[in-house]
User: Fold Dihydrolipoamide dehydrogenase from Actinoplanes italicus.
Amino acid sequence: MSDNTYDVIVIGAGPVGENVADRVVQGGLTAAIVERELVGGECSYWACMPTKALLRSASALRAARQLPGAREAVTGDLDAAAVLGRRDSFASNWRDDGQVSWLESAGIALHRGQGRISSARVVDVTGADGVTTRLTARHAVVVATGTGALIPDIDGLRESAPWTSREAASAKSVPGRLVVIGAGVVGAEMATAFAALGSTVTVLARDGVLPQAEPFAGELVTESLRDAGVTVRTGAEAVSVKRDDAGAVHVTLAGGEVIEADEVLVAIGRTPHTRDLGLENIGLTPGDWLTVDDALRVTAAGDWLYAAGDVNRRVLLTHQGKYQARALGDAIVARAKGEPVDTGAWGRHAVTADERAVPQVVFTDPEIASVGLTAAAAGAAGLNIRVVDYDLGSVAGSSLHADGYRGRARMVVDEDRRVIVGVTLAGPDVAELLHAATIAVAGEVPLDRLWHAVPAFPTMSEIWLRLLETYGR
Ligand SMILES: Cc1cc2nc3c(=O)[nH]c(=O)nc-3n(C[C@H](O)[C@H](O)[C@H](O)COP(=O)(O)OP(=O)(O)OC[C@H]3O[C@@H](n4cnc5c(N)ncnc54)[C@H](O)[C@@H]3O)c2cc1C
Ligand SMILES: NC(=O)c1ccc[n+]([C@@H]2O[C@H](COP(=O)([O-])OP(=O)(O)OC[C@H]3O[C@@H](n4cnc5c(N)ncnc54)[C@H](O)[C@@H]3O)[C@@H](O)[C@H]2O)c1
Assistant:
């Protein structure tokens, strides 16, 4: 008879769950991971990887078209079928054999099925065959069940079989006409991708494009979407949707206008996978986000239940969830061994960067790379700030990078401490510039010391020198 007692049980084998399990096993504990779909989670098959694969070829084509010599060598349009084919391979053709082998090599036990918490430290796993296996944890249960697309209560929307990020990321063909509801990160990226692949795209940007970012980021992306032929309807709200017998969708806006399309993509945010997790058995409410303390412990449960990644709503990004996973995995090991746990600010087991230094790249045209606070968020937090802006296109490295390079950079300085609390870079290929900014923000590097971090000439990193010069010594 198999022994189903482990030191740690992780529910959800997305990037976050995998990293928690790996970390505790590396620390000498035993771990089981429970997964109902594909090992690797949303990120691997329906989110980060396939969507970036959908965007990358068009970005390379745009880059070539901005350079004399290269431009002349580009003789055709984007090959949509080839892009979809490359995307398939980045989604591992929706097979998880590779990730399952990795789990085996890492010494993590896999239990396939729906995981439900039945009582403290006990998880029941019901497989596709209907058989339920009971697992018991000696030390901790970690929920890393992620999120799914939120479908708003728009009349007729659900019945119209809308696309969510999943259908967009795994599309087998390019719709002729696509309406996108929401212009946050998913909406902006998918509008960029499908416009480049050949769809006629309309974006209903009720709250503007990328409203969480610095305003210039949304303005630049809006402009380039429009240049690419996308209709961006700022302030527009869908009030009803209907799919007709011929398969076309009709999206009615507040005000009565109707837009007809082949598909409608809903991209208005996420909802946690906690509805069917047994939360009612431990006094929590199914469907709720799992609120955690600074140690990622589920505040309302007890000392054995943790939540990491999307499901705790701190930051809905893979790299940040994996950061939580490393800190949490190490803390669980330390507690199990009776060793000290340091969850004080920037401590070994803390997730301080979640509040102060979250990097993100939005892979639109132009790319938007940001870390830390926007000027608005820093102001709202009561910081005494100074905002420094610079035209990224006027840096030598950028003008070499592409003719007519358009971009902008902003740093937000906390004047009381003379450290940078936020940076936003907008421009082609700024993604790889971001980590320097992340180090400056997370390291709280004093501005006086940053003058000694000399950017190589002629690279786009010279933007750092220009921002410092504009700020003044
Ligand atoms: C379209 C799109 C693009 C994105 N692009 C990026 C990007 O470029 N960069 C980035 O950093 N982030 C990106 N994100 C966000 C990123 O996908 C998430 O932050 C990340 O997947 C969260 O990881 P996770 O492990 O917490 O959850 P998930 O990846 O959602 O994994 C959770 C796993 O738990 C399983 N599960 C759920 N409930 C149960 C249960 N009861 N029992 C058993 N198993 C269960 C699920 O099947 C799933 O495999 C994107 C998101 C979307 C929607
Ligand atoms: N490159 C990346 O890092 C990347 C890419 C995609 C997704 N993600 C992550 O996935 C998460 C989900 O992305 P998302 O775009 O679904 O959510 P989001 O929160 O980024 O954007 C949703 C947008 O929809 C708008 N909205 C809300 N309700 C609406 C309604 N009823 N009608 C019209 N608009 C409405 C909001 O104003 C918001 O701008 C994000 O938190 C993001 O961090 C990251």
The pocket of flavin-adenine dinucleotide (ligand 1) is lined by residues 11-17, 34-37, 41-43, 47-48, 51-52, 114-115, 144-147, 165, 169, 186, 273, 276-277, 309-310, 316-319, 321 (CB under 6 Å). Residues 158-268 form a domain with the FAD/NAD(P)-binding domain fold (CATH 3.50.50.60).
